[in-house]
TrEMBL record:
GO molecular function list: ATP binding; molybdopterin adenylyltransferase activity
SUPFAM superfamilies (alphabetical): Molybdenum cofactor biosynthesis proteins
The keyword Nucleotidyltransferase belongs to this UniProt entry's keyword annotation: yes
Name recorded for this polypeptide: Molybdopterin adenylyltransferase
Annotated PANTHER family: MOLYBDENUM COFACTOR BIOSYNTHESIS, MOLYBDOPTERIN MOLYBDOTRANSFERASE
Pfam families: MoCF_biosynth (PF00994)
InterPro entries xrefs: MoaB/Mog-like_dom_sf (IPR036425), MoaB/Mog_dom (IPR001453), MoCF_biosynth_CS (IPR008284), MPT_Adenylyltrnsfr/MoaC-Rel (IPR051920)
Known role: Catalyzes the adenylation of molybdopterin as part of the biosynthesis of the molybdenum-cofactor.
Protein source organism: Pseudothauera lacus
Pathway named in the protein's UniProt entry: Cofactor biosynthesis; molybdopterin biosynthesis
NCBIfam families: molyb_syn (TIGR00177), PRK09417.1 (NF006932)
Family, similarity comment: Belongs to the MoaB/Mog family.
GO annotation, biological process: Mo-molybdopterin cofactor biosynthetic process
Length: 196
């Protein structure tokens, strides 16, 4: 049995956090991960406003104190004055992982022409991978799972395909996925550690 991975689910929204609407970010993240992951995992959810200092503090808390090896944020990636999630994420990261943002924008263009308005980034902080997803709840599935053709075959692979191997490389727990949702790609040389 694999070791359980703790996954930070960080919904960043002024209106969801002050109760003007119900947060759909955390439920959408939970729902998708619940379908995609077949190895054990535990959600560590947080709902906060679009305040840069609060975002930075919460990312640090999830990574350093809560032991989350993966953090998925949703919201605050656009061009509006209050959208500061990428700045906060870059500020707490040791290394930027530009491929995630580049690929998510490409995937999202299959769904909306405004995909290029998302400034989403990904970083490594210590042994934690942090990935920004857009705020529209439907964009969570779109970017993580990718695009399917009418016959259900995969037309554009979602970014989650690369996440288990990235977590391996930074020393996190082994993750297995349901291939009907998303096939995790690992190079043939990747060796599953004993007991994982
Ligand atoms: N947590 C959420 N729950 C439900 N819907 C959301 C959430 N976050 C965003 N949305 C929807 O997606 C849209 C785009 O998200 P964005 O992150 O740009 O929010 P926003 O317009 O800055 O407002 P807010 O921060 O108050 O959610 C929102 O206008 C809203 O319709
Ligand atoms: N997959 C996907 N990506 C998407 C969208 C979407 O609906 N689906 N919305 C776009 C829009 S309209 C905006 S403004 C940006 C930024 O969104 P955010 O501020 O909610 O993070 O994400 C873009 N990326």
């Amino acid at each position: 049995m694999s070791q359980s991975i703790r996954i930070g689910l960080l919904s960043i929204s002024d209106r969801a956090s002050d109760g003007r609407y119900e947060d759909q970010g955390i439920p959408a993240l939970r729902e998708w991960l619940g379908r995609a992951l077949v190895s054990p995992w535990e959600a560590v959810p947080r709902l906060i406003p679009d305040e840069r200092a609060t975002i930075e503090r919460t990312l640090i808390e999830l990574a350093d104190n809560e032991g989350c090896k993966l953090i998925l944020t949703t919201g605050g990636t656009g061009p509006s004055p209050r959208d500061v999630t990428p700045e906060a994420t870059l500020a707490v990261g040791d290394k930027e992982m530009p491929g995630f943002g580049e690929e998510m924008r490409r995937i999202s263009l299959n769904f909306v022409p405004t995909a290029i308005l998302s400034r989403q980034v990904a970083v490594i902080r210590g042994q934690t991978l942090i990935v920004n997803l857009p705020g529209q709840p439907k964009s969570i599935r779109e970017t993580l799972e990718g695009v399917r053709a009418a016959d259900g075959s995969v037309a554009h692979v979602g970014i989650f395909a690369a996440i288990p191997y990235c977590v391996d490389l930074i020393g996190g727990p082994w993750m297995d996925t349901d291939e009907a949702v998303i096939k995790a790609f690992r190079p043939k040389s990747a060796v599953r550690p004993q007991g994982a």
